[in-house]
Design a protein that fits this description.
The structure is a homodimer of 254-residue chains. The first copy, chain A, has 254 residues and is an alpha/beta fold. A 7-stranded mixed beta sheet of chain A has the order 2-1-3-4-5-6-7. The termini of chain A are far apart. Chain A has 9 helices and 7 strands; from the N terminus they run E-H-E-H-E-H-E-E-E-H-E-H-H-H-H-H. At the A-B interface, helix 5, helix 6, helix 7, helix 8 and helix 9 of A face helix 5, helix 6, helix 7, helix 8 and helix 9 of B.
Chain lengths: 254, 254
């Protein structure tokens, strides 16, 4: 049984805790976090709100806190020579000192409050400085997912950037679509089947092949009619730039 | 039994034909289209490649052709006084003459070649000039979907514009994410669980509430690190503008 201490009480920590608790081969021997109310919700009998009271007998420590706080928590942790991993997509391994054996345990997913999700298919990107530490990370990750990937800090940063395009930016476009429908007093759920099918198609073809719409076929008539409909300045600007980007990408097909 | 003639042989026509064939209460008595190879694939015994040979005994004619061709096909159709609907999101009802009884039968979905999809949950937006014609459209649409919506041309245009944001633009962002991963020799399917969860969340909260990422929390450190990673000019530009749009939308929360 691998003994694990989880530091942090936010969305990532909560989902990891749930997954580890349900998995075999790994035991969360302690949860640590400053937010006492959040900490209580874990119902872990060895929880502590003091970083000084973190147990020293774990095989691995996972710091699941905001990017900005990782460094501080890592330095405050007084266990010596232990394997200490953070869960961030963008903080490089080198940013952590050799006070501990630094590592990365980055689940490539978006986590929301009160939304229980399965980690089984979620890629967990791991990084460490020795093969022994990598083996421990692999064992721990394999308890909760079928997809463990060893990635350098450089590649992890690229993955995190791609995730911003595929999640943050697409979600914001859903918000703009929501605004456009609201102007016409129409409900957003009209678009659910379309949104579902847009992503379902990606299982069969790559997004370049899946592209449809007026910009990809250079249909200036429809583009002009759309421009006349757009009210908000940021809708106009993004419509123009995204359409141009699609046109450029698909110009060779036409 | 409602008798229907389908004009067109593209993706929309194919999906509608399949749905009507499987449904009760409506019979596709003929399929018409200039593309003989595509027409043959319908295996409809009364198919014709000549617009002059379209049968005159149908209750409704559905023109499922490209936006640019709708007007021409509508005018060429020699049946007199019949209910003739097009399937476009952006062509207004007024664009069609009173040679026939003009109407709209717009399925709000993205259709791809060889991808069979269920229309059961897909909204079909209908429009006509009389309540009698609306009733026929409702009957026909109800055969293949549970969601029939009467919409004016104005509102339909807004829906179509929102669909461009929710489908065309998001799909293009998947393409850019694909490019960013390819630069690091990483496969796009790493992002599938994230993409699935991004859209699954919309069933529980609106996209504004679902927004996460560095721009929404004004995390300048991560934004700066991302800017340094971006290589292609259109990636840089879109990163900047989408991040700014998210920041503006979420500034009040911070």
């Amino acid at each position: 049984m691998i003994k694990l201490v989880l530091i942090g009480t936010g969305n990532v920590a909560q989902q990891l805790y749930r997954a580890f608790t349900q998995a075999g081969n790994v035991e969360v021997i302690q949860v640590a976090g400053r937010n006492k109310a959040a900490l209580a919700s874990f119902q872990n009998k060895n929880s502590t709100s003091s970083i000084d009271r973190v147990r020293s007998d774990a095989d691995i420590y996972i710091i699941a806190v905001n990017d900005d706080a990782i460094h501080t928590v890592y330095e405050q942790l007084s266990v010596v020579g232990k394997l200490v991993a953070h869960t961030s997509g963008s903080v490089p391994l080198k940013a952590l000192s050799d006070k501990h054996r630094p590592a990365v345990f980055y689940p490539l997913q978006t986590f929301s409050h009160h939304r229980e999700i399965s980690l089984k298919e979620v890629p967990i990107c791991i990084e460490a400085t020795t093969t022994e530490d990598l083996d421990v990370l692999k064992s721990v990750a394999s308890c909760i997912t079928d997809r463990v990937i060893e990635l350098s800090s450089e590649k992890r940063k690229q993955v995190h950037l791609a995730a911003v395009f595929a999640n943050n930016f697409t979600n914001h476009l859903y918000h703009l679509a929501h605004e456009i429908l609201a102007e016409a007093n129409l409900p957003f759920d009209l678009l659910y089947p379309l949104i579902k099918e847009t992503t379902a198609k990606l299982g069969e073809m790559n997004p370049y092949e899946a592209q449809t719409g007026p910009a990809s076929r250079n249909d200036e008539g429809t583009l002009t009619r759309h421009r006349q409909l757009l009210r908000k300045p940021n809708h106009k600007l993004l419509y123009e730039l995204l359409s141009n980007s699609i046109k450029e990408a698909h110009a060779k097909k036409l």
